[in-house]
Design brief:
This protein has 189 residues and is α/β, with parallel strands linked by helices. The chain has five helices and eleven strands; from the N terminus they run E-H-E-H-E-E-H-E-E-E-E-E-E-H-H-E. Strands 1, 2, 3, 4, 5, 6, 9, 10 and 11 form a nine-stranded mixed beta sheet that branches. It has a two-stranded antiparallel sheet with strand order 7-8. The protein binds zinc ion (ZN).
Length: 189
């Protein structure tokens, strides 16, 4: 298992990252003792996240953990042990708009495509999603070796959307894992 950790080295993100960093520091021995390889990816340039992600394709089962999602050991191991190829851990996701600051919008960015093409957030406990955020996500090596990553290039900020679109084009959906974990999305400063 590769645990891929893309993060912003910008000091302004440290408050959001603090809890995740502390969690990893206290669990690194546990994870490496299980044979997990931890790959940190400081994202200074716009292409670093995507290049890091692409460079690992095909190597091993991959879990992406973004810098402000706080896992639990049970949740990480459940992703790792799940027999499904594409799994997304649910996590808190909030509005960014000024209309409803701080209001919880949904889980991860787990959405389904509704009849007519619009997208809706999945309810608590939903098993499947068509679109997910990359915050805490597993992509099994089995899927990687069976699907050449001919994903069109684009902005790093929509890598997860582009990837989900690409996955959906191949007829796959995402398995969603519960209960949701903490996301320090709104705790800047
Ligand atoms: Zn799963």
């Amino acid at each position: 298992m590769i645990l891929f950790l893309p993060y912003s080295p910008d000091p302004s993100y440290l408050p959001r990252r603090k809890e995740t960093i502390e969690w990893l520091q206290s669990h690194v021995e546990e994870l490496t003792s299980r044979g997990w390889r931890i790959v940190e990816c400081p994202c200074e340039g716009d292409d670093d996240y995507e290049n890091g992600f692409r460079s690992l394709w095909g190597e091993d089962d991959l879990i992406i953990l973004e810098h402000d999602v706080v896992p639990t050991l049970d949740a990480l191991l459940a992703l790792a042990d799940c027999g499904r190829d594409l799994c997304a851990q649910a996590y808190q996701f909030y509005f960014r708009s000024n209309d409803a600051p701080g209001e919880m919008l949904g889980f991860n960015m787990c959405r389904v495509v509704l009849p007519g093409g619009a997208q809706g957030y999945v309810p608590d406990g939903a098993d499947q999603a068509d679109f997910v955020g990359f915050g805490m996500t597993k992509i099994a090596r089995h899927f990687q070796v069976n699907n050449r990553l001919d994903l069109p290039a684009g902005r790093w900020g929509d890598l997860d959307s582009r990837f989900c679109e690409w996955v959906r084009g191949r007829g796959f959906t995402w398995h969603v894992h519960w209960p949701y974990v903490k996301h320090n999305q709104m705790t800047e400063g």
